[in-house]
Amino acid sequence: MTQKSDILVANESVRRFCAYLSAERSLSGHTLSAYLADLRLFADFLSGNSERKIEWSSVSERDARAYLAHLGKMKASAVTMRRKLAALRTFFRFLEKEYNVECNPFAFLKGPRKTKVLPKVLSVSDVARFLERPIVNLSEGKINEYEALRDSAIFEFLYSTGCRISEAIEVKWGEIDFSRGTLIVTGKGSKDRLVIVGKEALSQLSRLRVSAMAKYPAHALDDSFVFLGPHLKRLSPRFVERRMKKYLAEAGLPGDLTPHKLRHSFATHLLDAGADLRSVQEMLGHASLSTTQIYTHVSVERLKDEYAKSHPRA
Predict the structure, then answer these.
(1) pTM score, whole prediction
(2) Distance between CA atoms of 155 and 163, rounded to whole angstroms?
(3) Which one is catalytic: 40, 164, 264, 269?
(4) For the chain, which residues make up each domain, given as ranges?
(5) CA angle centred on 85, ends 283 and 4, rounded to 5°
(6) Is 263 an annotated catalytic residue?
(7) pLDDT for the residue numbered 2
(8) Residue 164 among the catalytic residues
(9) Does 216 participate in catalysis according to the annotation?
(10) pLDDT tens-digit series, residues 117-161
(11) Among 89, 161, 260, 292, which residue's beta carbon has the most beta carbons within 10 A?
């Protein structure tokens, strides 16, 4: 952390704001770091990169608009600009309540409209081609049994449950109810939700645990992480991404797909098959139904593609 970063963190109002976000809004350390980074950039803009102390109460709507224009000149994306404005709006709302700052300069300032980008998803057949790769590698002698079963289990788990990679790597053996095919995961905002684990994923998880008990018995106990890396530590998201790219290449699929695309595919395939939107929302752990609705657009686009290819007067 730089000297300027230390000055910002030492600011009482910023420090109390971070404590508020952590205690009352239960935000993760990663999200807190993002808020702090956004505040730091705004402070740098106000001070002109000098070390002078920022008086938050003196920030005006004119300053806020100038900052928005600055972000535009820096070619920040619409998503980035809206996120930064939301962080600053939240900070000044906190100052209004806790420090009697008279007005929130970001209260009515809106960023540019987000361009709707439909999430990339794999087809059902593409998912099947991808998921078979670890076991194919095992049969060809390219990887050992534990590696193959671990890789097969993590990707089957992600597609079966729709979990985020950050949720999946935290799972411990004792948390999986194999008899019911369910699991409680802790998602964004430290909120718990029930996820369903499908039969194929349960089968791969069972095979993985048998292999772990034989190879690493001390790491197959109920309080042990399910998915272990080369040094018997919990898998990292980056490790999973690298393994996915390897299998995608072998399956002849686009290499820019990420583990999160399995979550997108999970939601889209459920809706394509007629699942209820609110049920999918609950399974994904979305706070707002509008977040889940983007997958209905994906389904409609796929229907339109099929219509264009098949209807004689399309």
Answers:
(1) 0.68
(2) 10
(3) 164
(4) 3-99, 124-310
(5) 110
(6) yes
(7) 44
(8) yes
(9) no
(10) 777 889 999 999 999 999 999 999 999 999 999 999 999 999 999
(11) 161
